[in-house]
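Can anyone check this?
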Amino acid sequence: MTRDLLRDLYATATAALLVVAAALVGTAIERDHGTLHVGWPPLYSNWGPHVGPGTPAALVVAIGVVAYGPPVAARLPWRALLGAAWGTAMAWTWSLALIDGWRRGIADRLTTKYEYLQVIDRFQDIPATLRDFTGHILLHSPDHWPPHVAGHPPAATVTFVLLDRVGLGGGGWAGAFCITVGASACVAVLVAVRALADEALARRAAPFLVMAPAAVWMGTSADGYFAAVAAWTIALLALAVTGHRPRLTGLASGLLFGLTCYLSYGLTLFALIAGAVLLLGPRRTRPLPYALAGVAVVPVVFTLAGFNWWEAYRLLVERYYQGAGGIRPYGYWVWANLACTVLIAGPATAAGLRRTGAALLKTPRRLTARSSPDAPLHGRTPDRHGGSVRVGPALRRRLLPWADMPGASAELRLAVLVATAFAALLIADLSGMSKAETERIWLPFAMWLLASCAFLTRPRAWLAAQAVLALLLNHLLLTGW
């Protein structure tokens, strides 16, 4: 066993111990104080072993991806790989959702008393409802919104209102929409990794993005839809800063980021990931005017319609502490939320994050080595006889990967992207506005953590661990989302 693999196993074991600790401590707190408001700590779920019509399909998809995912991802033409990734991610998410059956797994998910479809009839006049939206956020306000409607800007609810208007009303269509759009998040991450790092890393990450344990909650949570919109924001910006139609992709990225901020308040943290993309891109300033113009569109439209984002967020914070958020203990959830992240990202991601940290820590050491008196200067490097030879630009970028960010190695670029997503997740955690239920709330961040699995060796073993975790979660627990 290699030293790196042993360290990966240590990281995975540490993550598993975090989950066990969260379960044991959480169970004790809930038993003694009843302040967690979850059925099976740290997840918002209940124990309930079961099988369903999706069980055989989930097993087939899991076996297929474990057995054939890595070689197929390595050989398929790029565009075919993107299509195959989206299709397989949909198959995986549908099959997991159908383990709970059609009604409970899909059609009824978005129709409960907490969800968006409960208020479709209150949006007959969309502009009028937007003008009055903040008046129904607080619990003591008349006809207060259900938790998820109150907890998000109105673009989330308006999405389902528009689906209803075009004839795709009801929980079944809403669930199918969330699964179909949400599954495309893996494609967006692949596009971004290829643009910012390289294609080989994207191909190695593909099977892990397709068969993530997060799919248990991607189908059919609206947060899966949010995850896809946020992911495509970053993917399009990555294309823009690497010179792929920077005006069009920059504008589209800005439009989607504006929409992201009006789907979920917490996803404004994706500005950090966007900043990392700008840092990594060789043409970081060229698409900026177009991206900024795009960002303004959605906020302007909603503001002119009468919705005040800042006032709504202020009221949401008050509403949050009026409900379970004011009861759930911060001291537990600030670390138990990370246990939820382990369960949605899987053991492979724990090992991948360990390798991400290692890649980042190698940078200063290598930079110091390159800065030593014997280091090559001015494009020249020593030969084995003590002389020097001229180094071309392409070879120099390989020999001096740490000279500047645009010339950094593919591994470092991917590590920076993943680390920034993890930093955004930690900020969300420390804010105290995500105490529990982060297995769905943090799906947009988890998709980017999964990209770290590109660093792993022995992909089939790690994929098998991911599949087993997802299948156990979906068959043993009745998840709340």
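Reply from J.R.: I decoded it. The mean pLDDT is 91.
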